[in-house]
Amino acid sequence: MSDTREKLVVTEKLRKYFPVSAGFMKKNYIQAVNDVSLHIYRGETLGLVGESGCGKTTFGRTLLQLYTPTAGKIIYGGKTIFDSENGIHENMLPYRRKMQLIFQDPSASLDPRMTVGEIVGEALDIHKLYPNKKDRADRINELLTRVGLNSEHANRFPHEFSGGQQQRVGIARALAVEPEFIVCDEPISALDVSIQSQVVNMLEDLQEQIGLTYLFIAHDLSVVRHISSRIGVMYLGCLVELAESYELCGHPIHPYSQTLLSAVPLTDPEKNRHRQRILLEGDIPSPLNPPSGCRFHTRCPYATDWCKEAMPELKEYSPGHYAACHMLDK
Ligand code: SF4
Fold first, then answer.
1. Is 56 a pocket residue for ligand 1 (Cβ < 6 Å)?
2. How many angstroms separate the alpha carbon of residue 325 from the centre of ligand 1?
């Protein structure tokens, strides 16, 4: 059956390397994102998980071109906005209205010298929306109300708010320019557990009301499983598995995804007590000097000599279920 869903965002072999100096005349690179190819359907939430330092945040920022990609291709709404091979690098200003970001740390992402009204209104001014003063004020009030704040909050400064309220301001700022697509970069990891579900529920409600598309980045698989229709798993800059949420959580086929899932607590305490956790040995290797072949081979219990030599390709093993592992080819 052909897939008729619209792909709003597509990346092809998207790569982001950061140069670092390694002595006189020598340059080395942090290989933060390595040839990641995926697509995000309009109106869906694609979750992206992996350990700290796996490149998921860098991928989100490179996708928005807050970091200039080192190589690869980005297609947005059917138009190629970046293509290293053909020298395409579109002006991003018009796309900033369509593609927005919610930051991980709300307090660090809000300018402490600006009022909430100024913070939310700044994007309106940059894009020359609502030039009339009253319309602008009405729009700011509407946005604050939409995220559970009120018009009185517009005159206050970020330090007068709790973490959850600050994140609501960050969300109102992202919504100000009426985006279609939002990269949610660990939007709840800096919040109290009691507030996390409120923010997740609000993001889900906004998606339903406005028809937003999300890339939801997090390291907590239980949250990602709740909010995402599909989930991608990253390890050391590479996408190692991608599937529908229920499929990935029920039948992970990549050894790294299996490890991540074995660490997610189950709701049934009895089952939780008897389940077997897969423990990985060693730390995540440095992206400055990643292992040869499959980047997971230094920690994978199934690694063979071939894994040390050849990087596995991401392949589709069942409809919509992709993974990169030599073991699956046998
Ligand atoms: Fe493990 Fe080899 Fe598969 Fe990599 S390719 S995940 S090392 S079995």
1. no
2. 5
Listed by start position, the domains of the chain span 7-109+181-189+212-329
CA of 48 to the centre of ligand 1 (A): 20
pLDDT tens-digit readout, 52-76: 889 999 999 999 999 999 999 999 9
Contacts of residue 220, Cβ cutoff 8 Å, sequence gap at least 6: 49, 189
| CATH fit for domain 7-109+181-189+212-329, picks 3.30.365.10, 3.90.230.10, 3.40.190.150, 3.40.50.300 | 3.40.50.300
Q: Tell me which residue of 327, 204, 330 sits closest to 257, measured CA to CA.
A: 327
> Which tens digits make up the pLDDT trace of 267-301?
777 776 777 777 777 778 999 999 999 999 999 99
**pTM here?**
0.93
| pLDDT tens-place string over residues 193-219 | 888 899 999 999 999 999 999 999 998
Question: Concatenated DSSP letters for 298-327?
Answer: TT-TT--HHHHH-PPPPEEEETTEEE--GG
